[in-house]
Every structure is written in structure tokens, then in C-alpha cells.
Amino acid sequence: MTAFARLLFGRRARLRWVHLILGGALAMPYVLVGSVAVGPALGATNLFGSVAVQFASFAVGLPLAAVTSLFPPTRPLEAGVVRWLCGVEEDLLAYGPARTKGEKGRTAAWFTLHLGFGGIVAGMSLAVPPFATVLIVLPVFEGLRDSRLGLPAVFEQSWALPLAPVAGVAMLVGLAGCAAGCGVLLARWAPALLGPSPEERVAAAEARAADLAVRNRLARELHDSVGHALSAVMLQASAARRLLDSDREFVREALAAIEDTSRRTVGELDAVLGVLRDGDAPGTAPAPTLADDLDGLLRRTRAGGLRVRAAVTADPASVPPLISREAYRIVQEGLSNALRHAGDRVTVAVTIDVADDHLRITVENPLGEAGAPRPGGGHGLRGIADRARLLGGAARAGAAGGTWCLHVRLPLKGSV
């Protein structure tokens, strides 16, 4: 019984009832316009004096409503009201105006149904409650039994008076059931009539894919930049602590490298996070490239005590900016992996050259004591592979003969 009462009079049912009443209010101007044509045709001068005239005016007005529903704001406004009052999930409804013929046809069908059901329920909501109230109190007030009130003749009989309140309550319940049923039907039809078309779903999927691509790129930038900086700073601080009493000059260089690394990383972090702040302009710190900061990257890495042997035969200034930026991050991540897994007592060999119109990057270092990646690792190598694949290149990494080798090939032709 409680579930039945909630179905008819619960919050969701009441909101859908309001939605139908709004549809009836929207239908009234169309009914009045329809009465202009129907009234003279049927010889009626009073719209509200004849039920037949009202229904005829209603039937003429609904096609007019279907035509006006073709205005662009109709679908987004109707979808917004349906989300709020009918409880339909947002993802099932479209946000923009109808553009194609199919979308416009479905919008017209929805608007017609909304105003049609709404006009009927709104009319019943105006007429039924007063009539039902009269029936409920009829046994108590004898004056209401006057035939001029339009009550059924049966209720003028004394034996039928006890049944009048039952009939009144039944009418109210029937009104609530009709409103609830119409609300359920409209809520069920809304996704089909106001939902996004296949073209809109494809466009939304493409927009989500583009957004995910941007976020993945930002995640790679944060991982490579901040991860390398933290690894380098940790190594530099550790080396400075060990040599604090024996080599003050090295300690000063390590602290200077920590300061430089931290400053550059904060600038890059601000640039990346600026993209994520709604309404904020992106940060002004430029993305590093081989030409801009390869020497600085190697210098800061060596300042922490890691021995880096670099052989750069490619001219960084001649590498296209996009390739140069991604190559810088790849070298940075290769050095970060060496710092994390091999420690600061090994020599890392970095080779950058050009062969067969490809920029080749190789980073080699002895395996650490464990000889395996740390738990939870692997994101950096996956990021390197993603960078190379997006540029049409390839990357491979693995251990061979006690040495870990990262090798990346990036095409130079066709790059901007």
C-alpha cells in the first residue's frame, strides 16, 4: 500500500505532475488559436461552453505546437525541464538544439506529446478536484444536492448518498493515477525523442577522446618533469649529505643544482597545471627542447653524482620543435629510470644521432642490484612508448647482458 501511495503521490510523481501542468499551460495559447478556426466553423461563440469545441480546438492547436517546436531553443529547454522534473538521467538527453531532420522530427513529436498529455491532465486537474470534493461532502450538506450543480441524478436518491464520498475519492485517485501514468510514459519516451542522435553521440565521444588525450599528455608531462626532478633532487641531496664534511665544493654544486632543478620544475608544473584551471591562461614557461636545455639537463644530472657519458652527433637546433620537445622528455625519463633503478655509482651512456631520416635516442646503464624494476613502476616506459607511437616512431627497452637499454626512433620527415 505504501509503495502504491508513493507511486501516485511521491515526490517523483508530484514533479512529473508539475511537468504535465506546465505542458497544459503551454498548450493554452495554441488551443485559443485553434478556437479561432473551430468556433466559426461549428457556430460556437463560447470556447468553454462546449466540450466538443474545446477538444476540436485542442486538436487543431497541437499541429501548430509541433511547428513551433522547430525553433532551436525548444529541445535544450525541454531536455532541461525533463532532467529536473521527470528524473531522466542527463546522459540520456541531448544538450544542443535539433539540427537534422530526424532530430527536429523527434523534437516535434515530443513537444506534441508533452502538450497533449499536459493539456488533458491539466484540464482534469482543474475540473476533477472541485467535483470530487462536492461528492465527498454531499451527504453532509443538503444544499449541494441541487440538480443545477450538474451532479448525476443518481446522487439525488437517498440510498446513493453514502456512495458519493467513495466516488469522490475514487475520482481523485483516478486523477493521480492518470497523471502518474502519463508522467511515466513521458519519462520513458524522453530518451528516444530528446536523446542525442548517433551523430551527436559520435561527436561527444570524439570530444571525450580529445579531452582524454589532453589529460594523458598532461599526465605524461607531470610524470616526466616532476618524476625526474624528484629523482635528481633526491640523488643530489644524498650525495651532498655524504660529502658534506669532505668536499664542500661538490656540496655547493649539488645545492645549486637542486635549486636550479626545483626552479625549472616549478615553472613547468605551473605551465601544465595552468591548462587544467578553468578560466586561467596556460602558464608561460615554455616546454623544454633539446636545443634549449639538453646541456642543462645533463649538467644537473651530473651534479648529483651520476656519471653521464653523452655522445650527441645530431644538431639539436635542426630537429623540428615537436620532435625536439618529445625527445627531450624521452632523454629525461631515461635518465630518471637510471637514477631510480641503477643508483648514483654507475655510468649512463646517452647517444643521440640521426640515421635514415630518424632521430635515434639510446640510453644505457648497468642494471641495479635487484636487476628488476621497482614495484609499481613502468609508467615512464609506457609514456615513452606513447610519445614515440604518436609521432610515428618506435621505442623498445629491456635488459641484455647486465645492461638496461632504452632505444627510441623518431621520424624527422613530415614533422613540424
UniProtKB/TrEMBL annotation:
Taking the record's annotation, the residue ranges forming a coiled coil are none
- Organism's domain of life? Bacteria
This chain's protein is named histidine kinase
Which residues does UniProt assign to the signal peptide?
none
This protein's UniProt keywords = ATP-binding, Kinase, Membrane, Nucleotide-binding, Phosphoprotein, Transferase, Transmembrane, Transmembrane helix, Two-component regulatory system
Which reaction(s) are listed as its catalytic activity? ATP + protein L-histidine = ADP + protein N-phospho-L-histidine
Instruction: Please report the stretch or stretches of sequence annotated as the Signal transduction histidine kinase subgroup 3 dimerisation and phosphoacceptor domain.
Output: 215-279
Pfam families, from UniProt? HisKA_3
- One annotated Gene Ontology cellular component of this protein: membrane
Q: What is its EC number?
A: 2.7.13.3
Q: Please list the GO terms describing molecular function.
A: ATP binding; phosphorelay sensor kinase activity; protein dimerization activity
* TM region positions: 20-41, 47-67, 108-141, 161-187
